[in-house]
Amino acid sequence: MDNVASEGGEDGDPWRRLLADRIDEVLGKRVRREIIGERNASFLSGAEGNVIWTRAVIDRMDELVDEDDRIEVLTGCAHVMPESKIKPLREAYERTHDLDELRRVWQEQFMKDLSTSRDPLPQEMLGTVIREHWGQVGVRNGNVVIATKIPENMAGYFAAKDDNERRYHYCHCARIKEVFRMKGVRISPTYCYCGGGYYKSNWERIIRKPVKVKLLKSVLGGDDVCQFAIYLPEGV
């Protein structure tokens, strides 16, 4: 397999270990060895090394694994919302089984979190969040919710002087955002299904039913935002 990937074992990086475990679980150890290599492989450290490792591994997944299985693996590697945030949303849904009421409560929680953060947003930036429907609640069309992430560094995003700087400040993933400062380097947007797992986990824990996610836009693919479609099951 690709030497870069095989030299970038997951030792020392919790996300790499999680990815290896997810590949083992979904695809089996043989496929994991083809994609990542052995678990005792040497470690590519530092921000640029991490980008190189990630690029090679995701490229191998694109080459060897079909899309549904790639999504299944990577959505299981996401950070998840704390249960303390999920519980009131689950309770709101279970009281009425009304998606609009759930989204109303969810939006109130989201706006409260923005206003009480250590660095509250200036009114102009807050207006953009509201106008563009950024955030977890998104825009609903029947059983499909379109959710657009907010920038990780809002001030940096709006002050950016070029597209790469803007995307650097937008990206929430500290593991790979350095790619926007490395000329001529790309990472497949497939990686962003890890972020899609955040939305999948939130919705599944709230409505207690499986959902599917589809990547619509990605800063890794040249867009200015990352956006997902969340497909809710019939009957919710």
Note the topology.
Layout lengths: L2 H4 L7 H14 L1 H7 L10 H19 L2 H9 L7 H14 L2 H17 L7 H9 L3 E7 L2 E5 L5 H6 L3 H8 L22 H15 L4 E6 L9 E5 L5
Antiparallel strand pairs: 1-2, 2-4, 3-4
What's the oligomerization state?
single chain
The number of distinct helices, counting runs of at least 4 residues, comes to: 11
Domain count: the total is: 2
Bin the helical content.
Answer: 40-55%
The strand order across the widest sheet is 1-2-4-3
Structural class from helices and strands? alpha+beta
Mean pLDDT: 90
Radius of gyration: 19 Å
Gap between N and C termini: 44 Å
Strands, total number:
4
- Please state the overall shape, judged from the principal axes of the Cα atoms: globular
Biggest sheet architecture:
4 strands, antiparallel
Strand content: 5-15%
Secondary-structure element series: HHHHHHHHEEHHHEE
Runs in which pLDDT lies below 50 for 5 or more consecutive residues are 1-11
